[in-house]
Amino acid sequence: MRSLAPRTAGATRRQDPPRQSSRPVNFGIKSSVALFVVVLASSPAAQERTVIRLDPSLDALVAPDAKVERVATGFGFTEGPVWVRSGGFLIFSDIPANAINRWTPADGRVSVFLEETGFTGADASDVGGEQTNARGERIYLIGSNGVTLDPQGRVTFNAMGDRQIVRVETDGGRTVLASRYDGKRLNSTNDLVYKRNGSLYFTDPPSGLRRRNDDPKKELPFNGVFLLRDGTLQLLARDLANPNGIALSPDERILYVNSSADRKIFRYDVQRDDTIANGRLLVDMSAEKAPGVPDGMKVDERGNLYSTGPGGIWVMSPDGTHLGTLVFPEQPANLAFGDGDGQALYVTARSSVYRVRLKVAGVRP
C-alpha cells in the first residue's frame, strides 16, 4: 500500500476533571413516543440486489441472496447504532431529535432511551451542522452521533452540540469525559471505540459546527484523533481532512480511521502505551462515482472491515481488498453487529434502521 504516513502528535494534556449531571435513562418502553412496525424483507425496503460480490471470498461472510430488512423508520437522521447484549436490544442516535432511541426486536417497538444527548443548552439556533435529510428537509446535527459501551457496559456517546464525550453512569447520571484539549473546546466529537483496558479513542471533525471548518466557534486549528487514557487526553493525529469512523482490529493491534472528506481509510499500529504509529493509507475510495463516504466502520471477528462508502457498505479484507458492497435503500451512515449471535449487521441510514444477516459474527463492545 502507498504510504501517506499522516503525522502523529504525542503531546499530552490533562483533561478537565469529569463533570457529572443527572438525567434519567429509560430502560423500559412505557414512554415510547412512537411505534414503528417491523418491516420484513418482503417489503419494498428489500431491493432486488443486496450483495455486490467483487471477490469470491465474500461468500464466506455473507450469503449471495442475503436480504435487507427495514426494522424501523420515520426518523430525522439515524446514527451510532450499538447492540446492548445485556438487554438484547439496539440503541441508536436520531441526531436532529437530540435523542438516543431503543429498538426491541421482540415486538419492533421504538422508545426514547436517552434525551438531550447532543445539546443541553437553551438556544440551539446556531448549533449543529446543516444538512438535508431523506425527505429533503433542512436539519441540524445537534444531537449525539456515535454511541458505544465501555468495558463495564456503560453507554458512552459523542455529544455533537455540546462538543464533548459523555458517559452514562449506572444510576443514570452523566459524566463528561472529554470536552477540551489544551484549553480549547473540541470541535464536535463524532465516533468512538473503547479498548478492552478502558482506553478510549475518538474522532473530532467539525461536522457539528454550523460552518464546519470556517465556523468562528471552532477553537482547535485541526481535526483530530484523540486518546483518552486514565484521565489524560492525548492528540494522536491531526492531519486527516475529516476524521470520522474509528475501529480496532480484533486483537487491538491496529486502529482504523475513516477520513470522510477525501474518502480514505487509514490504519495505524497501536503501541504498548495505546498511542499509535506508522500511519498509512489502507483504502482509497476517492475515484468512486457512487454517492457515499467512509463514515461509520466496524470489524468482524476475522478482522474484515465493514465501512460505509460509495454505493453502500463496503466489505474489505484486513489488507484493504474490496470484497464487495452491501446495498441499502438509503445511504448508510453507520453500522453495528448485533442479535444474540452477533451475526446481524444493523445499519443506520438516513430516516431508517436496517438489518442484514451475515455468516460471521462481528466485534461488539
How would you describe this protein?
The chain has 365 residues and is mainly beta. The chain has a single domain (51-357), classed as Neuraminidase (6 Propeller), CATH 2.120.10.30. 0% of the residues lie in helices and 43% in strands. The protein contains no helices and 31 strands. It has strands spanning 12-14, 19-22, 51-53, 69-73, 78-84, 89-94, 99-103, 110-115, 129-132, 138-141, 144-149, 155-159, 164-168, 173-178, 180-181, 184-185, 192-194, 200-204, 224-229, 232-237, 243-248, 254-259, 264-270, 276-284, 297-299, 305-309, 312-316, 322-326, 334-338, 344-349, 352-357. Strands 1-20-19-18-17 form a five-stranded antiparallel beta sheet, with no helix packed on it. It has a five-stranded antiparallel beta sheet with strand order 2-14-13-12-11, with no helix packed on it. Strands 3-28-27-26-25 form a five-stranded antiparallel beta sheet, with no helix packed on it. The model is unreliable at 1-46 (pLDDT under 50).
Supply Rg: 19 Å
Overall number of domains: 1
Instruction: Name the CATH superfamily classification.
Output: TolB, C-terminal domain
Strand numbers in spatial order across the main sheet: 1-20-19-18-17
Please give the share of residues in helix: under 10%
Rounded mean pLDDT score:
90
Query: What proportion of the residues form beta strands (DSSP E)?
Result: 35-45%
Distance between the termini: 30 Å
Total number of strands: 31
CATH fold topology: Neuraminidase
Profile the largest sheet: 5 strands, antiparallel
Shape descriptor reads globular
CATH class: Mainly Beta
For the record, the CATH architecture stands as 6 Propeller
How many H/I helical runs? 0
Structural class by SSE content: mainly beta
